[in-house]
Design brief:
The structure is a single chain. By secondary structure, the chain is an alpha+beta fold. It has two domains: 2-28 and 39-76 and 225-258, no CATH class; 86-220, no CATH class. Helices cover 22% and strands 30% of the residues. The chain is built from two helices and 20 strands. Strands 7, 8, 11, 15 and 18 form a five-stranded antiparallel sheet that branches. Strands 12-13-14 form a three-stranded antiparallel sheet, with no helix packed on it. Strands 1-4 form a two-stranded antiparallel sheet. The longest helix is centred in the C-terminal third of the chain and has 33 residues, at 226-258. The protein is elongated and about 95 Å long. One of its GO terms (biological process) is bacterial-type flagellum-dependent swarming motility. Pfam families: Flg_bb_rod, Flg_bbr_C, LlgE_F_G_D1. This is Flagellar basal-body rod protein FlgG.
Amino acid sequence: MKALYIASTGMSAQERNVEVISNNIANMRTTGYKRQRAEFQDLLYQQYTRAGAQTSDQGTMIPAGLEIGSGVRTVATPRIMSQGSVNPTEKELDVAIRGEGFFMIGLPDGRTAYTRDGSFERDGDGTLVNSSGYALQPGINIPANAKSVAISPTGMVEAFVGNDVNPTQLGQLQIARFVNKAGLESIGDNLFSETGASGNAQIGVPGADGNGDLLQTYLEMANVNSVTEIADLIAAQRAYEMNARVISGADEMMKSTSQLR
């Protein structure tokens, strides 16, 4: 019976939906995480009677055809790139982007990755790195005897070096924007990589040309709303249960048919 296979596609789609929701909930406390949403499309239809088919020599036509669908499939899990809440941390190397843009991170293989996670540290050489030890791009080096590191909203990094009474400029932070930021590919470790769908990175200075500005001693939290996720989870569970009931109903119909004498 075709209903069995149609309902099975519904159960499979809702199972994938629950997986997406569970990943959002698991990353509620992940810095800079962007929630995902499952999107679905209906499958091919089998047409038994085509709408508009002629029914008589006088030109009368069927107003609505007879077609049965084949179910549903998951086609995409786009990320919702809205701004997450910005929380204070009191740590001078924590930086949040308020608005558009991504920090640029140099990967060991030479590629550039992008992130909204601005929790930076100094490595043994004084270079600013992320939590995985990958260097921020363009590179910023903070001398060992530097004090009171300051990062301006426009990305200028300054510090008092040694006994200097005036701050020394250590570098300029830059951020990247994309035409379609939802087209970035997630590669784990709070990082994204550029794809053909995202377009090329447009690199600029924070606070200029539509780029977001920076907030020192702040971090951007995940944009996951727990109430919304729980509501979506309940809806997905109910949809899964209804598809399971369709399978049970179709099974009962097949059972009744097989018992006919």
